[in-house]
Amino acid sequence: MSGTAEAKLAELGLSLPDVVPPLAAYQPAVQTGVYVYTAGQLPMVDGKLPVTGKVGAEVTAEEAKELARTCALNALAAVKSVVGDLDRIARVVKVVGFVASASDFTGQPGVLNGASELLGAVLGDKGVHARSAVGVAVLPLDAPVEVEIQVELTHA
Predict the structure, then answer these.
(1) Are residues 103 and 136 in contact, defined by beta-carbon separation less than 8 angstroms?
(2) In this structure, are residues 137 and 102 in contact, taking their beta carbons and an 8 Å threshold?
(3) Comparing C-alpha atoms, which of 137, 136, 118 is closest to residue 128?
(4) Among 15, 28, 49, 115, which residue is least crowded by beta carbons within 10 Å?
(5) pLDDT band for position 156 (cuts 50, 70, 90)
(6) What's CA 29's distance to the chain center, in Å?
């Protein structure tokens, strides 16, 4: 089903990828009441990470920002897998992003702007959210970035 959000993705030259299969014992997204919570989404493209390593060392902040955008796209795919239509999103409530950071890297908020800006571009005002941007030592599969989102659904 192609609604307003997916039409906006198409305008941006993007499409929703297949849902990234879980790497362990969890679901990519779960719904409780009018909320959907995604698992942390890695920047997987066609089943693999395009780049690995620490941001501020092997990965530049600009590369990591693009990877965060990919994570957000994967998160939207996970939401759609549960609710069937992205236009059921009333708003993105919270984004939590983790950045595998070199010890002197402090640009985590700029990296996570990749995810936040994508959500805003696709969902407009419904994509405005609270956010945490956290620097960590390492992420699964040596991914540079991981993003999870929480969305509120319309009551329909």
Answers:
(1) no
(2) no
(3) 118
(4) 15
(5) low
(6) 12
